[in-house]
Design the sequence.
């Protein structure tokens, strides 16, 4: 089956966003300009922009044009860090400790990550909110996409912002699985909890603008006095 | 500040959907018809329809017009029941037991629910998936919106579908807070778990098409072998 024309327009714009040619906040060509440049009708260009808007990659401003969605560290924190006080207040987490290593990938990591890597970079962090240890986090990356990241440690708090600025990897979606578990011994020690205390286990696959799984993350989150906020619709 | 014209169009259509005048699946008037009927420009009608599409209330079908989003029991289950096998398979839950009572509202329920009710209807259910008890659920409703619901017991499995069909209450969003907790004694007994076993505590405020909080739900979910799936973006 032939690729529909508007899909070609979508792919072209996504590639330009991913390469940094169209950075965050940039103004896109008008529907007419896009149509002329890519040899499609204005209607096809409009359909492609609509679809990109639905995916959250671009935003239209009445009378001003269409812009690449501006992604800031604050937005990344707000969208992807869901642990809040019960009243919904978000406090930015602080780093307690960090280890970055390169190791063999597990079979599961190899199967899930983009490029089926033999090895992964593992970033292991303990983070705190308001002086209290709340998060034990292991993020696994395919090394080919993040050259030299091991040498960048200590890494900034907002990893997704680093991925975008240093590697042009733009996370647009995270698929998560949550469960309640008793804290394993190493997690309990790191979070200063009793072994077996109930903690939220979150396993996340982060997907970038090119629809690649570019990070797997396993977090244990303290639950006492904190909630994990989500909205379903 | 005056209400923008397109907001008036939105409110009119939402009211028609909520009253059942425009039922699920119904074809909406065209932009031109809407504009003529409500005395606004076609552009204003288009903007209102775009906004309603963004909120998921209507869907456009190329060349066929705009329709009220079809909501089926399957969609309600798929969107709002997030407990799945680790591979993502969704099995519809079955009812193990149900109690429906009317009681005094707590201060918290009164503050959160639409109409600030003095009393609430509480629906207490235990549900199972594949023969295993997985869910202990307490749903609280403001009685004024659900006349006679106590006499309808036993209630159907998909409560949101009942709300829509019997009371024209259309749930469009659920704000949830999740934590890991040790199972309290009553929950542990109902779910056949050891007291203190880690379970997922989910507290949900369900919001309808008129932006009213029409149900508060507190669920305890078994975590062993099951995941709670969410997508962030």
Sequence:
């Amino acid at each position: 089956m032939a690729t529909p024309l508007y899909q070609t327009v979508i792919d072209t714009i996504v590639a330009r966003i991913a390469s940094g040619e169209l950075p965050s906040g940039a103004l896109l060509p008008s529907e007419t300009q896009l149509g002329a440049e890519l040899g499609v009708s204005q209607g096809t260009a409009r359909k492609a922009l609509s679809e990109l808007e639905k995916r959250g990659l671009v935003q239209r401003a009445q009378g001003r044009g269409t812009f690449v969605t501006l992604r800031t560290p604050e937005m990344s924190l707000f969208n992807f860090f869901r642990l809040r006080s019960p009243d919904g207040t978000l406090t930015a987490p602080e780093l307690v400790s960090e280890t970055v290593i390169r190791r063999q990938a597990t079979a599961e990591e190899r199967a899930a990550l983009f490029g089926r890597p033999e090895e992964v970079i593992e970033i292991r962090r303990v983070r705190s909110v308001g002086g209290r240890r709340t998060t034990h986090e292991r993020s696994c990356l395919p090394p080919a996409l993040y050259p030299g990241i091991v040498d960048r440690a200590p890494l900034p708090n907002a990893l997704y912002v680093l991925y975008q600025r240093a590697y042009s990897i733009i996370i647009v979606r995270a698929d998560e699985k949550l469960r309640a578990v008793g804290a394993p011994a190493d997690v309990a020690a790191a979070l200063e909890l009793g072994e077996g205390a109930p903690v939220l286990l979150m396993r996340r696959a982060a997907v970038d603008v090119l629809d690649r799984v570019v990070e797997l993350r396993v977090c244990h989150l303290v639950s006492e006095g904190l909630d994990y906020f989500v909205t379903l619709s």
